[in-house]
Amino acid sequence: MATLVHQLLSAAVVLAVVQLICSYSFHNCIEDPYSNRQSFHCIHRSNKDMSNYTGDLPLSALNLTISISPLWHIPNNSFANLSNLQYLSIDNTHLWKIDQLAFQNLHQLKSLNLSCNNISELNHSLFKDLINLTSLSLANNKLKQLPEGIFSTVPSLGTLIMRQNLLTNFSGIVKSVSNLTKLRQLDLCFNNFTSLSHSNESLPKSLSVLYICENNLNTLGSNHSFLRYIKVLDLSYNSKLPAMAFQGVDLGNISYLYLQSTSVKVVEFLNISNVKAGHVDFSGTGLKNDSMLTELCKLLNKKQKKVKTLRLDNNGIEQLKNNTLDYCPNITGALHLSRNNLKRIGCLEFLSRHKQINSFDAEHNHLTSLRSCKTYLTVQFLNLEELSFRYNRILSVNRYAFYHTPNVKMLKLNINNIAFLHRHALKGLKKLETLRLDNNLLTDLFNDTFEDNFNLQILNLRNNRISVIFNRTFSSLRNLTTLDLGGNKISSFQPSGLDGLKNLAKLYLDGNNLKQIDGSLYRGFQNTLTVLDLQRNQIRFLTENISSPFLNLRKLSDLKLDGQRPYGLTILPRTLFRGLHSLKSLYLTNNKIFYLAPDVFDDLTGLHFLTLDNCCVGVTQLQPGVFKNLRNLTKLVVENMGIQNFSKEVFGNLTKLHTLQLNRNVMQSIPVDALESLPKLRYLDIRSIPLSCTCTNTLLQNYTLQNPNVQIVYLYHLPCQRDPKGRFFNFATNVCYIDLGEYLFFSTAVVIFLFTATPLLYVKLYWKMKYSYYVFRSWFSEQWSRLREEEEKCKYDAFISYNSSDEQWVMDQLLPNLEGNGSLFKLCLHHRDFELGRFIVDNIVSAVYSSRKTICVVSRKFLQSEWCSLEIQLASYRLFDEHRDVLLLVFLEPIPERQLSSYHRMRKVMLKKTYLQWPGSDCTDPMQAQDLFWNQLRRAISTGSRVKTEENDVSVDSVAPEREETEHSEKGTAEENCYLLP
Q1: What is its main location (predicted)?
Q2: Less Cβ crowding at N or C end of the chain, within 10 Å?
């Protein structure tokens, strides 16, 4: 029950989607072109759910084929939307389960094919709604029995095929079909019946054809009248069935009885049976020697004076003596001796008593030659019209080999090893109409080979080793309509090689070694030729300057130029097809053409079918107007041409085009206006094209979903180029409909704002942002916590920031006075304490935060250094943002106010903090001034780092020493003012 609900829901969903989209495509089926939505095939699909095959098919469907797919279950009401279906085939699937109401409401169904599946049982009411069913095939399944009354509701059933199952109960079969008054054919071959015994029921009187071959029958076991209405009975390959099984069985109505590979002894059988001897097929009944054949003929002659057809195939007969068949009734029709072991048949002397025979075949024997039959003692068979020696080992055909059969109309010598055909071998065959010499080893034909065959209409010489057609070879064949020379090694025709063919309509020259097309060869039949096949030759054009070889072929309707070896046509000359106004079909596949001129097809105004499948090399650009004159074209195949793009003008004039196959090309988009210019288009195949699921194809998606007239093959399975799981029919297009004006307005406004604000932000916040970036990097590298240690844990007392040009002063003055002379300060210097291999920025940040103070040695060079600027920025951040007194400024030289105006952070420090000036040479006592300078610097380094904030008056560390020093400095002497500036 749960499965049923699931199936119904799935079908409902599929139908809802179809109704919503209104597209002309199907998930797993393709509508046959020109069927007007009536015929569908679903082949080589991977879906296991029946609803996905039938759910989106239209009510108008009459013919449905589902084949070679993993379908295993047909649930109830699977064809609820296909009530008009007349022909249904579900074959070669994994089907094993069919629900009771699977075929409900299929009242119009005439034919149902369920062959080649895994069905092992059927519900007794499975076919109850199939009141018009006339043909049912259950062949090649696993049925062991049929439920009672299964066919009681299909009164119109005429053909029932149940071959190759596991059926054993013949009585059950008879009971099932006994009420089928219209049943004409019943096929039960390849089952496991051992007997035909059954109860009181009988086979329908209408049944005329019964096949029970390949079973295990050892007796018929039925009543005498059981087979009275059967006309065709096949009991072959029941190896245990004896002749006595037919004792008393009424076979009087039999017109054909096949007993091959049974245990029936035909002479015994004919003696106890009422069958007409001439209606028995004696093939494979063990009649392998003259004595047995003589005995059979005598018995046949007693029963009737004439026999229309005598079948003696597959009996192992090695030879027939001249009088072997003399005792047979007069054969007025056909004698079949195929699949025996005959090595010679002479001139049919063994048929001398049967001159009225009209057909003789000795196919699949061991004949090696046909000898000459022109002697005065040779019996002539004037009524013989069909003669066949196919599938033998004939090497040579001697002169006048058929002189004894002058009225033969059809002669089959194909599929032998004929290497020698005497130039007079066919002499006397003046009424010959069809001659098959294909698949032999012929190398030469002569001008008198067909001299007497002036009534010949069809001559097949395919697949021989002919290399040259000599002058006047076919000069006598004025009535020939079809000449097949395909598959030979013809490289040239002599000038008059095709002369005499006044009425030739079909000429096949495919698979030869022709290097050019000689238009002069066709002059004798230029007004009658309709089909010209030049596939797989060596034709190649190296220039466009040629005259058309087809110019005068006014009635040519079918031209094949596919697959020229090994280079292809290469160039398609503009004038190649001049004059072919009546051409209907043109084949140009596999030709490596690198350019199609816009006017190459201009003369093909009557063309209906054109295939260019895989015809070109590399990426092809279809030129505008290349098909401009093909107004009658209905089918165009341009698969695998490497087409990258095309315009509307390419297909602009194809007003009658019905089918367009574009699959396996490389375009990422298809212009919709090009498709809309095809008013009669009904079938579009765009599989295996790398369509992009972008806004470029929005219109194409709308076209495929909303066009009710054009079938898009497997639309719902077309993938997106860069997303194999995505599907073209439903990729998101909402982003493609943004108001462009609004979008451009906001984009322009943002760009203008950025151009305006960026310079201002650069001037005001450059160092702030750069500092923040470096701090973030330090934090991100998990060093932030270490750099923010309490000052009691600081590694250095001061970090010295200076420019390399001031390094002399640092090394000679600063370092000895702060680290030497008994001082306890530990300084951090670039060249000495920075960690090797570490980023400079990380070293600077680490130095600033690992030191209680940062001493900036300011000079003009210092102000120009980017790294020095970064160091003072980091220290000033701690001063102002973290409220830590960590920054000390030492000016090595006087710097004018105007040069300091652009350094905002430094100016801010100088306005709030006292800074030190290195005593210059203008001081009255430089030594004393320098001593006071170093004392002040040492005291400043020794002070705490906490400062009083404006928001809170409470301070952790005393700042009295600094204030005291400040006051002292403001009251100091002139010498002190040389190094201490407010």
Answers
A1: membrane
A2: N
Contact 467, 491 (CB under 8 A): yes
Element holding 483 (H helix, E strand)? strand 482-484
pLDDT tens track for 290-343? 899 999 999 998 888 889 999 999 999 999 988 889 899 999 999 999 999 999
- Pairing mode, strands 39-43 and 30-31: antiparallel
The gap between the terminal CA atoms of the chain, to the nearest Å, is: 97
Of the candidates 531, 536, 534, the one whose C-alpha atom is nearest the C-alpha of residue 585 is 531
What is the overall mean pLDDT for the chain? 86
Q: What are the residues facing 518 on neighbouring strands?
A: none
How many angstroms separate the Cα of 687 from the Cα of each of 52, 253, 699, 901?
Answer: 19, 57, 18, 72
Give the Cα separation of 790 and 944 in Å (integer).
Answer: 12
Among candidate residues 169, 178, 121, 120, the one with its CA nearest the CA of residue 149: 178
CA-closest candidate to residue 119, choices 137, 101, 105: 137
CA distance 748 to 742: 10
> For residue 514, which amino acid is it?
L
* Three-class secondary structure of residue 828 per DSSP: strand
Q: Which amino acid is at 769?
A: M
pLDDT band at 832 (very low <50, low <70, confident <90, very high): confident
- The rounded distance, in Å, linking the Cα atoms of 893 and 702 is 78
Give backbone dihedrals phi and psi of 732, rounded to 5 degrees, phi first.
-65, 130
Q: Give, in degrees to the nearest 5, the angle at Cα 60 between 56 and 66.
A: 55
Degrees, nearest 5: CA angle 918-922-928: 60
Cα 880–Cα 883–Cα 888 angle in degrees, nearest 5? 70
Q: What is the DSSP letter of 623?
A: P
| Distance of alpha carbon 199 from alpha carbon 222, whole angstroms | 9
Do 84 and 63 form a contact (C-beta atoms < 8 A)? no
Gyration radius (Cα) of the chain, Å = 51
Residue 462 confidence (pLDDT) above 80: yes
Q: Could you report the per-residue pLDDT of 744-783, keeping only the tens digit for each? A: 777 888 888 887 877 777 666 665 666 566 556 555 444 4
| Full-model pTM | 0.74
Asked whether the CA dihedral 815, 820, 822, 828 is positive or negative, the reply is positive
Per the DSSP assignment, residues forming a β-bridge with 828 are: 799
Closest by Cα among 940, 938, 876 to 908 = 876
Phi, psi of 753 (to 5 degrees): -60, -45
| Architecture per CATH, 781-981 | 3-Layer(aba) Sandwich (3.40)
- Cα separations in angstroms, 110 against 62, 132, 489: 10, 6, 50
Asked whether residue 963 carries a pLDDT value surpassing 60, the answer given is no
Cβ atoms of 71 and 53 within 8 Å: the answer is yes
pLDDT for 22: 55
What residues pair up with 711 in beta bridges, in sequence order?
A: 683
Q: Give just the sign of the alpha carbon dihedral 475, 477, 482, 487.
A: negative
Closest CA to 561 of 613, 604, 603: 613
- Spatial strand order in the sheet of 915-917: 827-828, 796-801, 851-858, 887-891, 915-917, 980-981
The two three-digit tokens of residue 712, written as one number: 């898009």
Tokens of 850: 């690992």
Give the DSSP H/E element, type plus range, for residue 911.
helix 904-912
- Asked if 450 and 477 touch (Cβ cutoff 8 Å), the reply is yes
Q: What percent of the chain has pLDDT over 90?
A: 59
Question: Angle at the Cα of 621 (from 620 to 622), degrees rounded to 5?
Answer: 110
The token pair at 171 is 């009585």
Give the residues across from 800 on adjacent strands. 855
Report d(CA 781, CA 776) in Å as an integer: 8
Range 409-430 burial, b when 16+ CB lie within 10 A, else e: bebbbbbbebbebbebbbbbbe
Coil/strand/helix, residue 878:
helix
Residues in the chain: 982
